[in-house]
């Protein structure tokens, strides 16, 4: 009887021991969060902040991310198209500015003096910006860094425009702040790096997949919330996409549907945009 009890206890003990599927001599309490196989510490891999086995990481995660990276490699992202659109506006403004400048120089007869010099400097700055935006749209790598000249140009032009006001420097910094935030956002964006054929880390690729492939609304809302500071009608679209992106988030799905952070940031920026333009309208309506 004693021997029978010992056999039963031994069998129960063996049944409670879980072994790694690959390393059958190792006990474990961890299982792959995708396929459910038991895995030891050596086999544990990270994928979308989940613990998965080597097989799922290689055959599912690796292929998923590599196909995703290939689909974005050398393809223009939203930032490139927005900056290209700004460049198009600058192209037409250049035609107008050069025409006005030439008209005044020819018919005024006084050459470049006074306000004409200011207009000439504006034309040169606009021409420089047009060259940078054109190169950026053509995906030239040097243009990514050259884009930081935009905030500096905005500061110089604003400082010249507000030179007669007491808070000239303070007002000029307002004009440099928003373009600087936009440029930094574009420069650090993983999808923008892939557009310019710049390698990104696996972590950046996973985050990008979560925010664009599985929840594009959140990603687009953040980009629009920045652009809406210059084009206020976009605030309504940004608000809609931010709320939709926030609702779409499902970290328990596979692969997880992320995007909570950009959606929340878009909501914050959109709220600030509404407040900013409300204040501008109130002050502009005053006699």
3D structure, described in words:
The protein is mainly α and 287 residues long. The protein is 69% helix and 3% strand. It has a two-stranded antiparallel ribbon. Helix 3 packs antiparallel against helix 4, helix 10 (216-227) packs parallel to helix 12 and helix 11 (234-248) runs antiparallel to helix 12. The longest helix is centred in the N-terminal third of the chain and has 31 residues, at 78-108.
Total DSSP helices: 12
What summary fits the major beta sheet?
A: 2 strands, antiparallel
Q: Based on CA inertia axes, which overall geometry fits?
A: elongated
Radius of gyration: 28 Å
Total domains, how many? 3
Q: In percent, how much strand structure appears in the residues? A: under 5%
Helical percentage:
55-70%
Helix and strand pattern: HEEEEHHHHHHHHHHH
Query: Quick one: how many beta strands?
Result: 4
Summed over residues and divided by their number, the pLDDT gives a mean of 78
Based on secondary structure, the structural category is: mainly alpha
Question: Low-confidence stretches at least 5 residues in length (pLDDT < 50)?
Answer: 1-13
Give the end-to-end Cα distance, rounded to a whole number of Å: 103 Å
Identify the strand order in the major beta sheet. 1-2
């Amino acid at each position: 009887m004693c021997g029978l009890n010992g056999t039963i206890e031994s069998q129960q003990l063996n049944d409670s021991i879980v072994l790694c599927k690959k390393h059958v001599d190792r006990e474990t309490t961890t299982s792959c969060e995708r396929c459910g196989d038991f895995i030891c510490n050596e086999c544990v891999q990270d994928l979308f902040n989940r613990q998965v086995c080597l097989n799922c990481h290689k055959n599912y995660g690796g292929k998923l991310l590599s196909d995703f990276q290939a689909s974005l490699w050398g393809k223009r992202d939203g930032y490139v198209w927005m900056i290209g659109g700004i460049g198009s506006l600058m192209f037409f403004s250049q035609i107008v500015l050069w025409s006005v400048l030439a008209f005044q120089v020819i018919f005024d007869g006084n050459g470049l003096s006074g306000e004409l010099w200011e207009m000439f400097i504006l034309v040169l700055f606009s021409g420089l910006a047009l060259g940078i935006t054109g190169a950026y749209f053509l995906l030239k790598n040097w243009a990514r860094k050259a884009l930081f000249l935009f905030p500096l140009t905005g500061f110089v032009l604003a400082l010249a425009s507000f030179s007669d006001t007491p808070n000239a420097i303070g007002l000029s910094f307002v004009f440099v702040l928003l373009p600087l935030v936009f440029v930094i956002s574009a420069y650090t964006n993983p999808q923008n790096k892939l557009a310019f054929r710049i390698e990104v880390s696996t972590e950046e690729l996973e985050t990008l997949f979560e925010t664009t492939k599985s929840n594009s609304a959140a990603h687009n809302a953040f980009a629009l919330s920045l652009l809406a500071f210059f084009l206020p009608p976009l605030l309504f679209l940004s608000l809609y996409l931010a709320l939709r992106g926030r609702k779409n988030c499902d970290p328990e799905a596979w692969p997880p549907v992320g995007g909570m952070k950009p959606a929340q940031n878009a909501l914050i920026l959109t709220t600030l945009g509404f407040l900013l333009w409300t204040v501008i309208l109130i002050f502009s309506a005053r006699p």
